[in-house]
Design a protein that fits this description.
- 2 copies of one chain form a homodimer.
- The first copy, chain A, contains 13 helices and 14 strands.
- In chain A, helix 4 links the parallel strand 3 and strand 4.
- In chain A, helix 2 crosses helix 9.
- Chain A is an alpha/beta fold.
- In chain A, the strands form 4 sheets. Chain A has a 7-stranded mixed β-sheet with strand order 2-10-9-8-5-3-4, with helices on both faces. In chain A, strands 11-14-13 form a 3-stranded antiparallel β-sheet, covered by helices on one side.
- Chain A starts with 5 loop residues before the first strand and ends in a 5-residue tail after the last helix.
- The first copy, chain A, has 2 domains: 238 residues, 3-Layer(aba) Sandwich (Aspartate Aminotransferase, domain 2), CATH 3.40.640.10; 120 residues, Aspartate Aminotransferase, domain 1 (Alpha-Beta Complex), CATH 3.90.1150.
- The model of chain A has no long low-confidence stretch (mean pLDDT 97).
- The interface between A and B is large, with 58 and 58 residues.
C-alpha cells in the first residue's frame, strides 16, 4: 500500500486528475487542425484569467523564462531599471536585470516587508527608470503586494511596469488592463493548477513599442506574437501541457474568478487562524491579502527544517521551508490552485503532530476546528 | 466512434502510452526526495543515450531553447562564427547566431545538399571562427550529415563545434565523447519518444571554459550545471515531462541503442523502397543515412500540400509538408521514435490512395509489400 502524498507547497501545486489526464492524451502536432482549437481556446481563457484584451504570449518554459523575456525584450545595456525587492523573487529580478546589463537601482526591503507606493514614487523622483520590476506575490515570504498602487506610482513617474504574477494570477485579484500593467508574467504550476513547463506574458502596446536591441530569440515577444496571431507557435510548444492548461483554465473560469479569489482568501484565513489557535506566530501578514501562502515562524527551539522533514517523512506531506535568510526560521504552507479547506486541516493537523514530537509548546486539538470555523461559506 | 489518428511527422512524434501515463501521475515537488531519484536516473539515462561522461544539462524548453543556449553561452558580440546550412534548421542557426551579435559566415548549400568536411576546412582556412554550428539531421530535407567528419574538420581548424542533434539523437549513431563534439543539443519530442517541452545540452569542458560575456539567465549553463550537481534545478522544471522522459529513455536503452539505430535505418529503407515501388522520386538521399525522415517529391502536376491535406482529412494521418522553398514540392514521412514497419505501410498505403485521388500516375498495390520485404529482420 503506497503512502498517500500531499503536495502543499506554493508551487508546483496539486493538479486535478482530469487536467493530468488531458495531458496524457496522444500527442497532437502543433500545426494540425486538431490542435488549433485547443490553442485558440486556451489563449482565450488566459485572456479571461488575465482580465486583458491583449494577446497573452505563451512560452514553453518555467516562470523564470517569462521573467527573463521582460528583461531581454525591454532592456538594452545601460538602461535604467528599478527593482522593488522584499524577498527571494525580488532578488531574482535583480539577478535577471543585472544579467541584461541594465543600471539597476534596488528598492530593497527586509524580507517579509510590504512594499509601499510612496517609496517607489520617492525613489523614482531621485532617479528615473525606464522599467520598474515588481513582485505581486512574494512566495518566499507570503506577502502579496498592493500591485495596483505600486504600479500607479511607477506609471505616474513615466516608467513601464513589469509584474511577476507567477504565484498570484488566478489566486488574488489582478486586473491587467484596468490597472494598466504593462507586462504581467505568470506560470502554469501555481494557481492555474497545471504541471510546470508553461509561462506567460501579457504585454502592452507601450511595452512592445519600447523594446530594446539586446540579443534574444527564444523569448522574443515579436516572434511569438506573430506566430500566435496565426494560431501557430514559433517553435514546437509543450502541446501536452497546453492540453492540460486548457482543461485547468476551464475549471477556474467555471468556478468564476471572483469565487476563486474568495476561496483563496478563506483558505488563507483558515490556515492563519488554525496556526494561531495552536499558539504559533505568523511570519506572513495576518490579513486576507495573504491568500497565496501562509508563512509560520518555527516556535522557540524548533528548526523549521525539522518541521518540513517531519511532515515529509512522517506523513507524506510536502510543505516549504524558508528560503535564504529565512531557512530554518519559517515554514510555509501553500494554498493556491486545487485546494480546499480539508487540505488546510490536514496540513495543520500534521504540523501539530510534528511540532509536539519536536518538543514545541503548542495548543493541541484546536487548530483544525478553528480552521473549519473561519473558512465559512463562500461570500461571493 | 472517433477517427483513429496517426502522427507521422518528424516531431513531435508518437509517445508510448506508458510514457504518457508516467507524465499523468500526481505532480511531485522538484526538490522532494520522491523526485530526486527520477531526476538522477533520467540524467544518467541521458548520458547513456548521448554516449558521454559529461553532465547533460536539461532545460524546460523546446529544442530551439537549447540551440539558443549555445549562442548565448559561447558568443560575445563580434565573435566569429561559421554556420553550415543546408535547410531550414541551418537557417535557424543563422538567425540565432545573428541575434547574438556574432560575425556570421554561412557555408550555405542548396536545401537538400549533403555538407562536406572539405568545404568546412577550406572555409575555415579563409576565415577562422571561434565556433562552428552544425546540423546533424536536417529535418527539413531528410539529410543526416556525417557530423563526425564535419566536426573533425572544424576541430582541426581550432574551432569549437556545436551540433544540433535534435532530431537525430537516439535515431542514428552519435558519439558525443568519442567524436569530441563540444556541444550536442537535443529535444524530448523526437527519437526520445516524449512530449515536447524538454531540451538538452552536453557541453565539453573546453566549451565551458570558452563562455562569453553576453546576457543570459534562464539558459545559463553554469547556473544549470551547479543546480544539477546537487540534483536540484535552477528553476521549477517540467517535472511531469521528466517523469515521462525517464520511462521513455528506459525503453530506448532496453531496446539498445545499436538496435534502435538499426531499426531506424530499416524503417527508412522500407519507406524509401515502398515509395520508389510506387514510382515516386525521393528528395532525401536514397541510402541508409536517411533514417530520420523520408522526403518524397510530389509527382508532376501534384501539389504536396494537397497530399498532406488528403492524408490528414481523409485518413487522420499527419505527415509534414516541405518547408520554405520546398513547400508544396515535397512531403515528408517521419520515422523516429516509437515507430515500427506497420506505421510505414500505413503511411504508404494512405499516400497511394491520396495520390491516385489527385490523379497522379502511381503504381498501385506494391508499396506496402515492398516495404515489408526490405524491412527484414533486425541485423544487430
Amino acid at each position: 500500500m503506497p503512502e498517500k502524498r500531499y503536495l502543499m507547497t506554493p508551487g508546483p501545486t496539486p493538479v486535478p486528475p482530469e487536467v493530468l489526464a488531458a495531458g496524457a492524451q496522444p500527442v497532437l502536432h502543433h500545426r494540425s487542425p486538431d490542435f488549433a482549437p485547443i490553442l485558440e481556446r486556451t489563449l482565450g481563457r488566459l485572456q479571461a484569467v488575465y482580465r486583458t484584451e491583449r494577446d497573452v504570449l505563451m512560452f514553453s518554459s518555467s516562470g523564470t523564462g517569462a521573467m527573463e523575456s521582460a528583461a531581454a525584450n525591454l532592456l538594452t545595456p545601460r538602461d535604467r531599471a528599478l527593482v522593488v525587492s522584499a524577498g527571494s523573487f525580488g532578488e531574482r529580478w535583480v539577478q535577471i536585470v543585472r544579467a541584461y546589463g541594465a543600471e539597476v537601482d534596488v528598492l530593497a526591503y527586509e524580507w517579509g516587508a510590504v512594499p509601499a507606493a510612496e517609496d517607489i514614487a520617492t525613489r523614482l523622483r531621485e532617479r528615473s527608470a525606464k522599467v520598474v520590476f515588481l513582485t505581486h506575490s512574494e512566495t518566499s515570504t507570503g506577502v502579496v503586494a498592493d500591485v495596483r498602487s505600486l504600479a500607479a506610482a511607477a506609471k505616474e513617474a513615466g516608467a513601464l511596469v513589469v509584474v511577476d504574477a507567477i504565484s498570484s494570477l488566478g489566486a488574488v485579484p489582478l486586473e491587467t488592463d484596468a490597472w494598466e500593467l504593462d507586462v504581467v508574467l505568470a506560470g502554469s504550476q501555481k494557481a492555474l493548477m497545471c504541471p510546470p513547463g508553461l509561462a506567460f506574458a501579457a504585454v502592452s502596446e507601450e511595452a512592445f513599442a519600447a523594446r530594446g536591441s539586446g540579443p534574444r530569440f527564444y523569448f522574443d515577444w515579436e516572434r511569438i506574437r506573430a506566430a500566435q496571431a496565426k494560431l501557430d507557435a514559433a517553435y514546437t510548444p509543450a502541446v501536452t501541457l497546453i492540453a492540460s492548461l486548457d482543461v485547468a483554465l476551464g475549471h477556474l473560469l467555471e468556478e468564476g474568478l471572483e469565487q476563486a479569489f474568495d476561496r483563496h482568501a478563506r483558505l488563507g484565513r483558515a490556515c492563519r487562524e488554525g496556526a494561531k489557535a495552536m499558539g504559533l506566530e505568523l511570519f506572513s501578514p495576518d490579513d486576507d491579502t495573504a491568500a497565496v501562502v501562509t508563512a509560520i515562524r518555527a516556535p522557540d527551539g524548533v528548526d523549521a527544517t525539522d518541521v518540513v522533514r517531519g511532515l515529509r517523512d512522517g506523513h507524506g506531506i510536502t510543505i516549504a521551508n524558508g528560503q535564504g535568510p529565512l531557512k530554518g526560521r519559517i515554514f510555509r504552507i501553500g494554498h493556491i490552485g486545487w485546494f480546499d479547506v480539508f487540505d488546510i486541516t490536514t496540513a495543520l493537523a500534521a504540523a501539530e503532530l510534528v511540532l509536539v514530537e519536536l518538543g514545541a509548546d503548542v495548543e493541541r486539538g484546536v487548530a483544525t476546528a478553528r480552521a473549519l470555523e473561519v473558512y465559512e461559506r463562500a461570500r461571493v
